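User: Quick sanity check before I run a bigger batch. Here is a single chain. Can you write out its predicted 3D structure?
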Amino acid sequence: MKKRWTMALMLMMGMLLLAACGAKTYAALPINEDVDICAICKMQVKDDAYATQLTTKDGKNYKFDDIGCMNQWKEENGTENIGMDYVRDYNDKEWIEYSKAIYVYDASLRTPMAYGILNFKDKASAEAFVAEQGIGTIMTAEELASHDWKQNTEMMEMMGDHGHDHGHGEEGMDEEGMHGEGEKKEESGH
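Assistant: Done. Predicted structure follows.
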């Protein structure tokens, strides 16, 4: 009987040790518009569907106003030290793991830094957006790895204020940040 208790105790200690050494979780942090500044472009990070963030394995959190800025950070700093990266669903602003999100790209899509990429929590939402707007290429996180990440310089000039307008209420755009019917640009590749 003593041997069983010893084995049970050793098993429990082993499980606790494994749990303590298990994968660290990196939760998405809330956006505070009063203090959060994009780690790349130094613009204010709005609490909206365009905000992204990542946390390094050593616990440092970086926030971005556009997924293109987060990509630039990854290019400059590498990805091996990233604990988790998040984007927000375009429709409900819920945080989604970068690798699990579905993306829609079109150069005419209005984003804070004119990268033209929107994030969705599932393929059905992305497909519905593309069907409704009549433009956009649906991409996975893996496909974004080979994306060219060019900013729409014409849109940056049109938006002014270093491009940071978050796609709302500009002349020539509808409420969704899209060009009106007569101004749609041709779908561009990635």
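The radius of gyration is 21 Å.

User: Great, the batch can go ahead then.
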